[in-house]
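To whoever picks this up:

The parser on our side crashed when reading a file containing two proteins. I've narrowed it down to the boundary between the first structure block and the second sequence. Both blocks are reproduced below exactly, byte for byte. First block:
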Amino acid sequence: MAPAVAVAAVLADPSLLRCAVQPLVDLERAVVAGWEVLARVDERLGTGPAELFAAAQDPDALGALHVLALREARRLRPDVPPDTFLSVNVDPRALADAEVLEELEEWGDLGGVVVEVLEGLWPDDPRPVLEGLDAVRSAGGTVALDDVGAGWSGLSRLLEVRPSVVKLDRGVVARLGTDPAAEATVRAVGELAAALDAWVCLEGVEQPEQLLTARRLHVPLVQGFLLGRPAPAWPVADLARVRDLGAPARRPSGLGALLLDPAPGQLDLDPGGRPRAVVAAQPDGTPWCHPVTTLSPDTDPRAALARAMARPAPDRFAPLVVTAGDGRVVGVVNVEVLATAVATAGC
């Protein structure tokens, strides 16, 4: 069946569109951190999900397909395993569709939900897309930018979207372990992601050498056939393969010795326990919310201090928030203490 005909068939019979999930693995902790929801099309239609959505050239058809896919994903949400997130894919063009945004509103609080948008395929006017992403964040959701590196607009798109998760294109991942330039690309994206307070995820990990390279580069999240194929909820991930790599080699320095437990009320958390703001008292006693700067526990203190000092003056000395791979709070770091540690070479 031609993809365009398949679009009409799915819109007429939504049962032809189903979903599967694929685990995203936290490499440091060797646990499943989240699940990406992937559309699946009834095999009788003779077309795949990528072809199906690509064939929906009409904006209304594209939006209607997304609504159906999101409804399927929403049915999974009550049963998401504890301490994991659910990630859904949305074509950036569909984020301008009122019905798509209404469906996301039906989800309620989006804490623990990641909305992935493709790096390419953006409309000429990105403002409706960015407004849709702002609505996702306002509802407590997290934004990921998918397929980074697959198009020419990757760097500018990163700066435009400011995602919390950066998913590197599988074309780069496929070369890890055999192409030094691919490793350099992962390092560069990792540094840029760190400056944006984002986590890097490698997708399409299919070979042991790719997994080993990801561990060596301290990539937080990976997914791919090597660790778990898409399947009905909830497939078992091959975590033994990660454990067999042994404990991750620690960087020479980190923030562990400087961590403090957050004071009561110091952090505004979403329902999933992820930080939304750092709360401080103004001289008159009224609360003031600072944007969150998140870091991983093994961030070098010098890099952490540089990040803190690069913030706008009103936020420069707000505590830094250290989080695990799933975004949950590990502790906070006082910037003055951090500066002293760096100045005295204590870290």
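<<boundary where parser fails>>
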Amino acid sequence: MAKKQAKSRNLVIFTLVILVLLIALFVLTQLSNEAGKYQTFGSAPDLTGQPLLGNKDAKVTIYEFGDYKCPACKAWSTTVFPKLMKDYIDTGKANFSYINVLFHAEESRMSALAAESVLAQNPEAFWPYHDAIFHAQPDMESNWVTLNKMLEIAGTIQPAIDTAKLKSDIETLATQPQVSVDEALVKDYKIKQTPTIMINDVMLDDPFDYDAIVKLIEEKQ
């Protein structure tokens, strides 16, 4: 009888140990998955000279490292960004900044130079121009970013853009210093994909995970 009781007790203990190990493994897996969504840096990207949309005094800045030639960036700008605009930027809880990434060689540089030139010329025209460049991106891949195209888009924007000055600024690389600042940030933050989204000093693994973005914004309030 004693042997049977001991055997039964050992079986119960063994079962409990296995159960505890399984629970611990589950918790660790969940924590690992959660941690894998984010990467934290020692500081957020410097906003000096960067375009800023929304309340400049907001505690939270949403950064997009993007490329005007990137189809995924266009998709993000038409799906995720409008929700962020409504829920956080328009309400003053967060602001938004865009940092150029030049993953598509000279066309990326051309569009970045154009956008930075508009920002330098008239900051109020920057965001309409920014949106219009993405809107002009064709569904099929092509070499569509040209000087004439950048000027054509500028001619449709209100407030008005001085297209003669824009043409001169692009041709003389007037805003290359600011583009170079962005290139340095891309290197510093080891950007490997576009779009890459940061909330203050935290980078998300999946830029289209709206719930994860919201969670970070709320934590930073």
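After patching the parser it read the second block fine. The beta strands are 38-40, 52-54, 60-66, 94-100, 196-199, 202-204. Residues 43 and 208 are 23 Å apart (CA to CA).
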